[in-house]
Amino acid sequence: MRFTICLIAALALSAGSTPLIAKTAKHAAFQLNQTTWIFTDKKEGKLRESIDADGKYIAETIRGKHVDHGTAVMKDGKACFTSAMTKEGEVCWTTRPVSVGHSMATKSDKGEKLKVTRVKYTPLKMPK
Predict the structure, then answer these.
(1) pTM
(2) CA 101 from chain center: how many Å?
(3) 38, 51, 88, 121: which has the fewest C-beta neighbours closer than 10 Å?
(4) Which of the four pLDDT bands, split at 50, 70 and 90, describes residue 126?
(5) How far is CA 31 from the centre of its chain?
């Protein structure tokens, strides 16, 4: 009998705390790290860009020509990139969670629009 009362009390406590956990749980924020994207650049054509686990990105043409590299971070829900090859400074883009194989339209803080497609993560390497 004592075991049954303890079991019922434990179940009641855990059932009572479940809604609290559900109410306070938040969805994980979208992360750029370990993602790869395909998009078309006006100058270079179709590009592949990968962001590694440390937030370093490399962009290259589909044929493998190195185009850009630098750092990428999420700030205020935007994807912000700072090229190590230009003096342009940080450029931020609107974003939303996108599954592999899906696309989204994005817009930079400078007004540039781009359609990007997320593909399976492929680490890229700096050319030698």
Answers:
(1) 0.74
(2) 14
(3) 88
(4) confident
(5) 3
Q: Which residues contact 73 (CB under 8 A, 6 or more apart)?
A: 32, 55, 79, 80
18 alpha-carbon distance from chain centroid: 30
How far does the chain reach from its first CA to its final CA, in angstroms?
A: 74
Give the model confidence (pLDDT) of 53-101 as tens digits.
Answer: 999 999 999 999 999 999 999 999 999 999 999 999 999 999 999 999 9
Whose tokens are 């009998």? That residue is: 1
Q: How far is CA 74 from CA 1, 39, 42, 105, in A?
A: 56, 19, 25, 17
Cα 72 from Cα 80, distance rounded (Å): 6
Assigned token pair, 62: 């589909």
Q: What's the alpha-carbon Rg for the chain, to the nearest Å? A: 22
**Paired sense of beta strands 56-61 and 66-75, if any:** antiparallel
Closest CA to 123 of 29, 31, 44, 33: 33
In the predicted model, what is the mean pLDDT of the chain?
A: 82
